Amino acid sequence: MTEGFDGQKRETLRRFAAVGAAAPFVGTASADDEGSDGNETREAIRGYVPTTPGAHFSKLRDDLRLGTGEAQYHLRKLEEAGAIESVKDDDYRRFFPAGRFDETDKRALGYLRRETPRGMILALLRDPDATGADLASALGVSRPAISAAAADLERAGLLDRTDGYALTEPERLLTLVVRYADSFDAAAVAVADDAASLVSYDP
């Protein structure tokens, strides 16, 4: 059983390491990396973070099949090297490729990584006139859950509740959804596929 898990872990690391090695803006593993396993793990993280920006520690650790201490060690080394950066988001620490996103993008990606806020954003991108009741029905959650998520999105500057629910930066949010749809969920992929029809064109 352990051998099978180790094989799956190695395959996962190699897949993301290939992405990391091919991404010039996040560099390559330094010469002081400790052996091939350390090098491969660090390159995997370099590949994972740009393709899944805003992922929190537990998701990164689990997706890459790393141990907690192993993930902490390599993330710290990469932050010290200036290859990645992290921000605290309530109870989460989220990771981003260094220097690539502004603060609004980071906040937006953080909320796109949360199930209910992401569902609300996707639903409002499709139907800007959706009400709280519409959103609760579409997401299969309670009205209080929608209200709580809406308050969080408003504090983050991503939602205006003055007159219903209105995304403050729909174009930015749609761009992030399209660019990273595969790292979210099937609903995000569906919105990304329909993005052309969701963009208003007014020459």
From TrEMBL:
Residues 121-163 form the HTH marR-type domain. Gene3D superfamilies: Winged helix-like DNA-binding domain superfamily/Winged helix DNA-binding domain. InterPro entries: ArsR-like_HTH (IPR011991), HTH_HVO_0163_N (IPR056504), HTH_MarR-typ (IPR000835), WH-like_DNA-bd_sf (IPR036388), WH_DNA-bd_sf (IPR036390). GO terms for molecular function: DNA-binding transcription factor activity. Residues 39-109 form the HVO-0163 N-terminal HTH domain. It comes from the Archaea. This is MarR family transcriptional regulator. It comes from Halorubrum tropicale.
